[in-house]
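Researcher: Structure for this, please.
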Amino acid sequence: MNTDSISPAPPSADTQAGAAGEKPFRKGYRLPPELRDRIAAAHRTRPLLTMACALTDAVTALATAVVCALLLTSASLFLSVPVALAGCLLIARQLRALENLTHEASHYNWSRHHRRGNDVLGWLLSGLPTGGRLSAYRESHLRHHGRFGTSDDPDRRRYAELDLEALNRSSPWAFASSVLVRITRYQIGWLREVKTDLLASAGILLWSAVCAALPATLLGGPVTGVLAEVVWLASAFVVLPVLRLVAEADEHIYSDCDTVFDATISNVGLVQRVLIHPHADGYHTVHHLWPGIPHHALRRVHHTLMTHDPDYARRIRMRRGVLDTPRATTSDS
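Model: Predicted structure, token format:
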């Protein structure tokens, strides 16, 4: 099995002119020959598992919206409002997980050999609930991989525009302030990059109305249905962009290196794995070395390399806490 990434779409003429003379960062890592079979085997996709993950994410988010709405109409504000706020965070986390599965679909990691099915399932189960247009996202994201580190890399452009490497991680309050002053510009740029349009936004509204507001209405009446929709939209358009910005800002440091391996950060702490980088998105170094490895194999491959490749274990840059400075380490994660 080929262990290289899928090939990105060729850049347009304007892109080629804009990036003239620029070369993407070299990979900067060589896999030990004795591990090649393991890496090849890790590329195997498991569509049923990925479908189950997407359905679990969506059902959990929808059930949370309904429960929050029922509490808001039947319990005291002292109880229901804090629960609703926590519910918004959980829903946003589940939506972030679905976005990561849209990312998986962009690499054909739902189904390698049935690409039409990959795209249909990826859009229906993860793209539709989050407003992601798979074709537009794939075009943008494969430029990130294929033109990594150049001015044609959309992620590097956002890093530069928002100065994401300068997020102040000296304290929780400083970090929160750094994120919040960037969030509006970040969300506008992200929507422009993935070309989310009125049709995609209408899809989010229709999907949430049918899957969240309608069940809440049937269970608790019209007011409950409206509140379920409000909780859902607050999660999708207020909380989710914050999680997405933090996740994206975690992934790279472009300014002090010139290889993909050294510019990529793996975020392996508990908070990152559970809240910010669901579906093994935090094992980003492995992903950039082999984008065709599906989410369910990334952590296993990381631990294999940490155990059996001293060079990987010595050089990989990891962040174990949200506020940590990423650094190379010789210890297992």
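Researcher: Any notable elements?
Model: The longest strand covers residues 265-267. The first helix runs from residue 13 to 18.
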